[in-house]
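Structure first, sequence second, as always.
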């Protein structure tokens, strides 16, 4: 089959929004190249796993490539894609340089081109993300392996927003908790939570493509065999009393999620949010405080922020 590749060069902060635009335009998948992901592969306190100089990579901004089957007449939808990307500035996201190009690719190239960018990466003190096709064994005591196949819809799990979420999960998880993962994407946070000792996990995403990708990745990790994953609009219609809710999604979506999270948390529970760019941080903080959450920790990586919010008990 012949495929058409539409590539958008944009900023790091607009990656998720541009990916959503491309998927909503009918793409069968996207490939994400984010300069911040490659920066995270440099030596750090967890030790270097691969040599950045050995893999091709971009050095600034981000590039999202979407793939459309030959049944889609791409020139017809391209103007709409360009218009929607340009309008991201209306929502506080910088789409620059906003360069949109189109090219034909073969089925084989579509299916395998992204694999050269994906390698084992230590993302926290105890967690290493490993692609499903690589043979990697733990090199340090207490190192847990999460096997992921990002397919064509999701990144490698090493974006700063994901790293911050994982680090904050390590902070609040003690073992045996009930956790809800909102906007699960590749399922990485649900898998990590089980690896950290969480008892019950519910994972939700609005996109059926994400639900399938998450289930495929859950199946690669026996520790996460009992995770429930389903399509849902945030927590609409969900009536659960969880100990922890985690949401690594855009700030614009976090704000309406706040009252839903409060309703689905036990008193004394934690609400972890990530995916918050600099200029949206104050808005999210205000929404959390207005809902009577107590902020216990704020972490930052580059322009991205993550928050641990605590729902007080009557005794607090």
């Amino acid at each position: 089959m012949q495929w058409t590749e539409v590539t958008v060069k944009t900023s790091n902060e607009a990656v998720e929004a541009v990916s959503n635009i491309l998927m909503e335009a009918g793409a069968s998948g996207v490939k994400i190249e984010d300069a911040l992901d490659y920066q995270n592969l440099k030596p750090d306190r967890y030790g270097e796993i691969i040599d950045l100089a050995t893999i091709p990579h971009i050095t600034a901004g981000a590039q999202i490539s979407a793939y459309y089957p030959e049944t889609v007449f791409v020139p017809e939808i391209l103007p709409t894609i360009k218009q929607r990307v340009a309008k991201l500035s209306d929502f506080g996201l910088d789409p620059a340089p906003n360069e949109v190009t189109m090219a034909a690719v073969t089925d084989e190239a579509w299916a395998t081109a992204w694999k050269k960018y994906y390698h084992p990466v230590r993302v926290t003190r105890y967690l290493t993300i490993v692609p499903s096709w690589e043979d990697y064994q733990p090199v340090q005591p207490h190192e847990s392996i999460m096997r992921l196949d990002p397919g064509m819809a999701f990144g490698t799990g090493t974006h700063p927003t994901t790293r911050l979420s994982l680090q904050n999960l390590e902070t609040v998880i003690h073992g045996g908790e009930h956790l809800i993962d909102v906007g699960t994407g590749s399922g990485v946070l649900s898998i990590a939570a089980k690896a950290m000792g969480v008892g019950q996990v519910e994972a939700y995403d609005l996109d059926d493509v994400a639900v399938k990708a998450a289930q495929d990745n859950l199946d690669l990790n026996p520790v996460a065999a009992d995770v429930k994953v389903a399509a849902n609009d945030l927590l609409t219609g969900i009536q659960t009393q969880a100990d922890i809710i985690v949401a690594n999604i855009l700030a614009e979506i976090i704000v309406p999620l706040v009252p839903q999270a409060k309703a689905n948390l036990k008193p004394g529970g934690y609400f972890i949010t990530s995916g918050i760019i600099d200029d949206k941080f104050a808005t999210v903080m205000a929404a959390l405080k207005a809902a009577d959450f107590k902020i216990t920790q704020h972490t930052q990586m580059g322009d991205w922020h993550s928050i641990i919010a605590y729902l007080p008990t009557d005794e607090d």
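Margin note: DSSP finds nine helices and 14 strands in the chain.
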